[in-house]
Amino acid sequence: MTEARRQSTPDTGGSPNPIRSTRRTIARAVGGYVGLVVVPGILAVVAIRLWGGAGPVAGQAANAEPDPQSWLYRLLLAVAVIVLASQLIGAVAVRLGQPKVIGEMAAGILLGPTILGATAPDVQRWLFPAEVIPPLEVLANFGVIFFMFFVGLELPLDAMRRRRSAAVVLGHAGIAIPFLAGVVLGVTVLDRFRPDGVHPVVFAPFCGLALSITAFPVLARILAERGLHRTPIGALGLACAGIGDLTAWCLLTVIIAERRSGSAADVVVTVVLALAFALLMTLVVRPGLARFLARDRAAAGTVAAITLLALLLLSAWATELIGVHAIFGAFVAGLVMPRDSPVVREFADRLEGLTIWLLLPLFFATVGLKTSFGAIGGAGIWLIALAVVVVAMTTKMGSIAAGGRFLGMDRHDSASLAVMMNCRGLTEIVVLNIGLSLHIIDADLFAVLVLMALVTTALTGPLLGLLWRDGKPRGRLAPHRTDHGIRP
């Protein structure tokens, strides 16, 4: 019978019934599964019972469910709790008009000994047993490394170049005077917190650096939320914060080298190697990377993304090997990235989600686990904490306001700039965590300086709100000048 004939012949009882065929197929599948899977499985169980003994295997009950003592089991639970608490309290902070980072910092303190450890110590110890702290620290360190990459990537280099005269003067004034005040505190009032074996030549400069930090990333977010990032004074504030950040990381590099090395010659060698690394990245890696990324994106997109990630990690590894810190290498890697490359933007977008949603909350949690405000005993230490907050704010804001007036800015703009530069935020916490991990400061001073960072960051938004509304000045303290008050 031809094919045409077969198609024209009506379906009769001689043709296979589709329903019956389906039933036979299912029956065969079930039979095959029983014969080939179920029966061998039963025989395996019988063999185990016959030759392995009828008694329960030691540890069988414990292995039937996830072992509560397993560090991975506890780590997954701890990470889930940290991420949920961070996002929840961060959302509350945003509703209250604060940057999300304030809520994330508060979430870390909430989960630490200050609140959860004081009210429910058994719960706190169960959630964060000793075995999960090391892996949490490792993940948190990756968060800091990626964060520093973004700091370097987002540093406003063009704004810093355009406003370099005012930005250099004001940015360095906002570093120098608070640094001097911190050094004085470090050799007098705060010397009681200096750990044994830490030389004052390391401790006092670190105290000075802690008082002089400005958090560029947090400030950029606050200005964007208030519509100030596109105003002349907002752009100048970001440029000053960028100069200040760049200077602060260089100072921190020297302090770390001094702490890790020991002799003056070793410190010089470490600093020279760090400078050589920065020059190599700027003069060799940056142009080579730009040429590589300029190739066909479709052909090299995946390879380029892997290359960028490898460059970031290897840069962090190199500076850690040199003897400064991994964050310096990550910061330089961000600085040398070609910012107009779509591959870089796509890579940054992918990395940002992992960093913001997972790794940075873990960093805040590890900081919170080390912070115990309850351990600050006695009125004397609380008075010292108050003095640190007051000195940090007055020297930072006073130096910027005075510098702005000296450069010809009106009082409104100089006051606005002073408030902006007083924001310390996440950058301060990163620096303090490094100081604690290197035993430059003790846990009590760490808690005092974390409190200072929280207060100064939380005040930035409300103080700016007194001066600006919807990107417009509320009422000037002096007539406005369109060149935002800076003499040529």
Please name the defining characteristics of this protein.
single chain, 488 residues, mainly alpha, Na+/H+ antiporter like fold, 21 helices, 2 strands, disordered C terminus
Task: Describe it.
By secondary structure, this protein is an all-alpha fold. It has a domain at 137-357 and 376-473: Na+/H+ antiporter like fold (Up-down Bundle). It is built from 21 helices and 2 strands. The protein has helices at residues 3-8, 18-52, 60-64, 71-95, 100-111, 116-119, 121-127, 133-154, 157-162, 164-187, 200-212, 216-225, 232-261, 264-293, 297-322, 326-335, 342-370, 379-406, 411-421, 425-437, 443-467; strands at residues 468-469, 472-473. The protein has a two-stranded antiparallel ribbon. The longest helix is centred in the first third of the chain and has 35 residues, at 18-52. The radius of gyration is 30 Å and the shape is globular.
Q: Helix coverage percent of residues?
A: over 70%
Structural class: mainly alpha
Report the CATH C-level class of the domain at 137-357 and 376-473: Mainly Alpha
Task: Count up the helices.
Answer: 21
Could you give a quick summary of the protein structure above?
By secondary structure, the protein is mostly helical.
Topology:
Blueprint: H1 3-8, H2 18-52, H3 60-64, H4 71-95, H5 100-111, H6 116-119, H7 121-127, H8 133-154, H9 157-162, H10 164-187, H11 200-212, H12 216-225, H13 232-261, H14 264-293, H15 297-322, H16 326-335, H17 342-370, H18 379-406, H19 411-421, H20 425-437, H21 443-467, E1 468-469, E2 472-473
Antiparallel strand pairs: 1-2
Helix pairs in contact: 4-5, 4-17, 5-17, 8-16, 8-17, 10-11, 10-13, 10-18, 11-13, 12-13, 13-14, 13-19, 14-15, 15-16, 15-17, 18-19, 18-21, 19-21, 20-21
